[in-house]
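Repro:
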Amino acid sequence: MNVATEYAVKGPPMPTVRILFTRFSAFYTPLIATMAGGFLGEEGLEYQWSRLPRGGSAAVALSENVADVAQSTPSLSFVALAQGQHSELRHFARVNQLDGFFIAGRQADPDFLWSKLEGARVLVDHGLQPMINFQLACGNAGIDYAKVKVIDAGNAAEMEQAFRAGEGDYIHLQGPAPQALELDGAGSVVAEVGRVIGRGVFSSIAALPDWLRREEAGAFTRAYLKALAWTIQAPAAEIAGRLAPYFLGVSPAALAAAIAAYKDLGNWPSDVAISRRDLDATQDLFVQAGHIKTRFAYDMVCAPPPI
């Protein structure tokens, strides 16, 4: 077959979107589903995906053309702006409207009260936003964060390993890790941080303005909207079955339990646009925590979805 005939049969190659995950968990199911559910292909896109190396920066990866879009959080931008840095990053779609961390203890505790964390040894995720939200949740629950014996055991995988080895009384993790602990009899979910904090912009999809003006950006966003609608409507077990190849080593039952918990929490909004109200609410949390002094203008941080 000559080149011309082969081209006519196969058609032109589809454009590729490169997706970068700064974290990878069931919390980001709608974004993972764009790949796992075939929605990118339906919009004429190939894809590549990667995880941000430890110590890396999504903003740097995008600026150096390592990725086209990144799972991120608006706080990445307004904290950078507060430090006097120039930020081209624009967050154009929400992934979650509630915090996605669970508190797991050693045993089932249907009568759990946050006051039980005072004096307890708690492995807490020390990422900037997870830590701020955990501190806020303690305050909202009426307990003194200073009385919690906070342990920094490293990243999520290291935290889980340490807890399984006997470190700590409680652990603060995104799903499906707490659900895996529960299925293995190594722990039990006792609380959800999102229920205590309330609505905001807790994770996002971000890109640079130049990419957002390309045709691929519209195709990507349409695929994401389809994936999000499917995530909201489909049974958790069906979603877990499609996402399983992306969670090697994770029990499908644990993955399904985490997805079901996020669906019950109302974690994934049907409207992907980041509203000024929600952005302001999230910035207020960072003002309260002392990481920024004032809010930044919406268009310095966000952009409308390119659809």
